[in-house]
Fold these 3 entries.
Entry 1:
Amino acid sequence: SEDGTSDFEPKGNVKMICHEEPLGYGGCLMSAIKFAEGNFENLVLADISYKNFCEAADIALNALEESDITSIARIQREKTADEDYRVFALDDLVTERLNDELSLNLSDIFSPFKAFRLDAIRDMTLEEFDEAIILQLWIQSVHFGKTIKEIYYAGISDTSVTDASQLERDLDYYLDFIDGESL
């Protein structure tokens, strides 16, 4: 692959799925879920481009003892006295809308470090081929009453997480998606 992912040598119980053609984040997530079903109880997604990705994956997996879905945050949300948080990029605007619509308190909704109990997501319809699949995951998690836990881990903190160039679509697409999917 162009990003060097296919050069990674999986060890232990780590499995890696490579596609001949890029399928987007959603396509990769759907492939991972399909591969894991019937073979594993939990699924952990970890971005190997972060130097501490193994530790982040372990934290996410261990947190599944207390939740259905765990996300490891690369950033901490800075709150003001009235609990509003500062908004200064696309990721933050989407996070603010998602939190407001679903009464969530997430800071890094697009984090590439997540763990799922497969039985918790079995009834969900996750079908988007871009990052909107993550929005589907959060929205359907609330709809189906799943427990969500977000943990900040400084070992993967990254100041570029609010860079809109990392996302495949523009702000209006994600905001409209949240509105439509929330119905």
Note: The longest helix spans residues 24-36.
Entry 2:
Amino acid sequence: MSLARFHAPLALLLLCSGCAGYQLGVDSLYRPDVKTVKVPIFQSGSFRRGLGEQLTEAVVKQIESRTPYKVVSSSDADSELNGKILYQRKRVLAENSFDEPRDIETEILVEVSWTGRQGELLMKRSAAPEATGTIRIGQAINFVPESGQSLATAHQEAIQKLARQIVDQMELRW
């Protein structure tokens, strides 16, 4: 019986000491030196109207809901997240016997950069010192017009996925 009393506190001590180097919670995933982010409207090289505005809105919502950062519009923010839609394209993957599109893919490619107040790069694809400050992220979505899906719904789905991927890149590297 006395051996069991000795093992229980020892097991608890070992369990707690094993996690001494780790932090818990969402704050440990993000930079502690950044509190605010300015997100200008994403530029767009696409001829589709409103894609830049839609992506900016989705990114702002993702930052506000998933990170400890506050999105502000003032120039005295701790950091700035800039983005540009490089292109949006649509291509037919399959046609029916009347040469009507049956399966269509739309793809959006975005370039983003996140810099601090002093111009330092906060977002890098890799830990390599020569890594550039811009990251390219692409998202392709298939849609079937016959089932009631449209280019607009496919764009909305792609924008939501792109926004999540962009905010994922704001996490600290391990």
Note: Residues 17-23 have pLDDT under 50 and may be disordered.
Entry 3:
Amino acid sequence: MRRLRDSWFATLQSHVDFLSKTVLEIGCGDGRRSAEIASVCRKLVAIESNEERLLQAKKTHGENSMDFRHGSAENLAFPDDSFDIVIYTLSFHHVREEYMDKAISEAVRVTKSDGLIIFFEPAFEGTMFAAELAFDAGDGDEREKKALAYATMLRSPLLRETMEITNQSAFMFDSAEDFTEQMQPHKGTKEMMAIFFSQHGYLLRAQSRLHVFRPQK
């Protein structure tokens, strides 16, 4: 799999200034997006609850200007008003429903009054999403989780939305076998996958949204 286009951060930077900012990334995963953020901000602290992925992030990207730590969205181990920007990178919809409001409250607590809280979230459109549904691949059917995350952030009295930005990423797969190796499908035959990918030229697109909020303290 090759990422032909994943311009989420360039898109975000055209609207949000990260220079000289202290940033907290929640749900850093393997650290690939952390490296993009750290390349322009003054300091990045990135937390991840999955120990295996956190180890991968540290191993791949080292420390440098990135401070990788184990942590969870609903219990941030930082003082009040610690960061200029708090950003969830494709992670807020993975927070359990009963902890979502607490996670927002924690994000607001550690963000400066004039700071920003950003949610980078997957959308419901795109051929990558269609493939995940058709073959129960990747994160599978997350429609309910995505909708809940979207509704929770919009109804929160602790957040005031300033903008919502759409973004698109593109991924090229070499074959149906490449898709199987990368995305770990749980249903569908090789023949079905081959037909699906030949119809799309092995190029899948993923839609996402960037929600930018001001904390309401």
Note: The mean pLDDT is 93.
